[in-house]
Design brief:
- By secondary structure, this protein is mainly alpha-helical.
- The protein has one domain.
- It contains six helices and no strands.
- The longest helix is centred in the last third of the chain and has 22 residues.
- The protein starts with 12 loop residues before the first helix and ends in a 5-residue tail after the last helix.
Length: 114
């Protein structure tokens, strides 16, 4: 029996979950977000649907512990089952603001003013 590969550039949700578990630690939150979004976008639509409710939780699992604490507090939403927002755009907004704040702190420590 021969199986046709629908699109070899697409990933499966199981492969995505494996990637989440093995992602190199120590990356900046923006790098993690962009890589996460890129890989999530390569999933088949049905696999994206399976993972959508857990997308925010999975993202927080791969960011650095301190970043997780800082970002997780802002993403809390008591109206959802996970306790976190389900709106991915909110995650991007928070990551953007967090990155700008973090970069500003680094610049000040190095003697630069905004």
């Amino acid at each position: 029996m021969t199986y046709a590969i629908e699109d070899s550039s697409k990933a499966t949700w199981r492969g995505f979950e494996d990637w989440v578990e093995t992602l190199k630690k120590g990356l900046k939150v923006l790098e993690v977000f962009l890589e996460f979004e890129s890989r999530f976008g390569r999933l088949f639509a049905r696999d994206q649907d399976i993972l959508t409710l857990d997308k925010v939780v999975m993202f927080l699992c791969v960011v650095d512990v301190q970043d997780r604490k800082d970002i997780g507090v802002v993403l809390e939403d008591t109206t959802t089952e996970s306790g976190l927002t389900n709106t991915w755009e909110n995650v991007w907004d928070i990551v953007s603001r967090y990155t700008k704040r973090d970069n500003g702190s680094v610049m000040k420590k190095r003697g630069f003013q905004n």
